Amino acid sequence: MTEQNALADLIARYATSDGTHATAIPRLSLIRMSTPTEPIHALHEPALCIVVQGRKQVMLGDRIYRYGPEQYLVVSVDVPIVGQVTEASPGEPYLCFRLDLDPGVLGALIMEAGLDSGASDNPGAGLCLDPVTPELLSAASRLVTLLAAPRDAPILAPLAEREILYRLLTGSQAPRLREIAHAESKLQQVNRAIGWIKRNYDKPFRIDNVAQEARMSASALHQHFKAVTAMSPLQYQKQLRLQEARRLILGQAMDAATAGHNVGYDSPSQFSREYSRLFGAPPIRDIARMRAAPESAALI
Question: Where in the numbering of this chain does the HTH araC/xylS-type domain appear (predicted)?
């Protein structure tokens, strides 16, 4: 049995229904879908995603990332994305291993292993794909296997997680991973700007305020923010506003006008236009569609 098949069998054993399944192991989630999905909008946090069966595409701004079992995805900052499972069936469901990335664990491992932690002046995109290796799959399988050993997991799971991170830190995407843990990297400066926007998404902002938070000039912030997120700070804020409004309408049965006002829109008509532009339908029609496919809503 190949390492890919072994990990697929483990994920299928513990993710027995469609959706995203949190596990007893910190930061580890398993995902299963038995049919292709509609595009799903979400804020994706830093994570490693390994698809072992089926295929998926993720859109970040105007960039599209298509991948399956031959590649893994690394997300290095919080980014608004559109994800879609493109290949899945009841007989061969989409199966995915997801491990959220902890900057503290990464930083400690970089120091302990004596790896170069120098920061780049030109951060890359917040999403990247790289060929998966048997060693990475084997380490991921060992982590999932510990779900059957709750007595052993608290001791052994951190070791398996460290091996996974070590494989990433010594692979071709190592510079990007190291930037996650480097406090003064350009990536982390952009991340500080992202954090400010997330905390103040419902308020107007001046770019100078965000640049001050990032400790960059306004022009440098625009340049690096666009390189990492494929959008401007203002576009990023708009996506956060609209995703939060959608959550309020879907999860709290809030009417569209109130939801729009709560996330910072003064004009209901502007809110409806921008909502339709992002999600492909006005709020009422969009929410009806979401409620018809609740498994997909929890996919990312």
Answer: 191-289
